[in-house]
Amino acid sequence: MNPLSLLLLSFAMSTDAFAAAIGKGSGLHKPRFAEALRAGLIFGTIEAITPVIGWLIGQAASRFVLEWDHWIAFVLLVGLGVHMIHAGLSADDDAPEDKPSRHSFWVLAVTAVATSIDALAVGVSLAFVEVNILVAALCIGLATTLMVTLGMLLGRMLGQLVGKRAEIVGGVVLMLVGATILYEHFASL
Q1: CA–CA dist 151, 97 (Å, integer)
Q2: May I ask which residue range the UniProt record assigns to the signal sequence (predicted)?
């Protein structure tokens, strides 16, 4: 996996967390930078751990599917991309009634886990391509920290509309990364 693909993958993985952060930010009364950074660090840490777990699962299975690895990575990434696009196009019904000044750690952690399931699946697919998982996890974690911090701060102004669009863009980017992996495999034959 080349550096550009890794960079795109990192930011694609952060878009669903960005969308969630916009929602969380819009649910707060005047979110401050410290609260946004706190949320970013919680999301970023969880988003960095889950691809490593997925990669370990993928490594355990890689010896059984080595000749199909590029197809597995392609299908997983395209499937996740389609799922993110679908989620970005679906209606969102949660409208916060009252706005707290801070979200609890557990609310943020559960939301981060929910948005990092795709990173777990991406970690599985990364086990089938040549990539340093620690570098990939660090990039995904840093991108997520940055995007969630920004999303929390923008959430109050931008609301759900931009959050949904960010998720759609992230889905398209995941599909492009999957197509790039498949292309690189066939180009190397």
Answers
A1: 20
A2: 1-19
Say which amino acid occupies 24.
Answer: K
154 Cβ partners below 8 Å, 6+ apart? 22, 25, 162
* pLDDT per residue rounded down to tens, the chain (189 residues): 788 888 998 998 888 788 778 777 776 767 789 999 999 999 999 999 999 999 998 888 766 666 676 787 788 778 877 877 887 787 555 544 455 667 788 878 888 887 787 788 888 888 888 889 999 999 999 999 999 999 888 876 765 555 567 667 767 777 877 788 788 878 877
Neighbours of 45 (CB within 10 A): 16
- Token reading at 51: 């691809």
Compute the distance between CA of residue 90 and CA of residue 84 in angstroms, rounded to an integer.
10
Domain ranges for the chain: 3-91+104-187
